[in-house]
Amino acid sequence: MLFGWIEVMNGFAMITRDELIAWATRNGWKLDRWGHLKKEFDNGTHRLKLSRIAARHEISTPFGYARLASGYYKDLQLTADGKIAGLKF
């Protein structure tokens, strides 16, 4: 899908996987070898794990990754201040 294309479902603009990747790379996230996005923060490494239909926001722990929030692409939106809305726990 093209980056500028936004699909509308039930009257709300939804984000596509490609748009999420473009937003994340513009904001300092890096793609890893499995196609997920990672970024270092003060509290540790965060990951956006991308599947075909959903994204999960996770944080690295000594035991692996722990989910912080997740959401289907159809529920995600970019806000006016450049943040992702629609991720839920």
Quick structural overview:
This protein has 89 residues and is mainly beta.
Features:
89 residues; mainly beta; five-stranded antiparallel β-sheet; 1 helix; 46% strand; globular; disordered N terminus
Major beta sheet, strand line-up: 3-4-5-6-7
Radius of gyration: 13 Å
Oligomer designation:
single chain
Strand residue percentage: over 45%
Overall SS class: mainly beta
Task: Let me know the average pLDDT.
Answer: 84
Tally of alpha and pi helices: 1
Gross geometry: globular
Description:
The chain is mostly beta strands and 89 residues long. It has one domain. Helices cover 11% and strands 46% of the residues. It is built from 1 helix and 9 strands; from the N terminus they run E-E-H-E-E-E-E-E-E-E. The strands form 3 sheets. It has a 5-stranded antiparallel sheet with strand order 3-4-5-6-7, covered by helices on one side. The chain has a two-stranded antiparallel ribbon with strand order 1-2. It has a two-stranded antiparallel ribbon with strand order 8-9. The protein is globular and about 35 Å long.
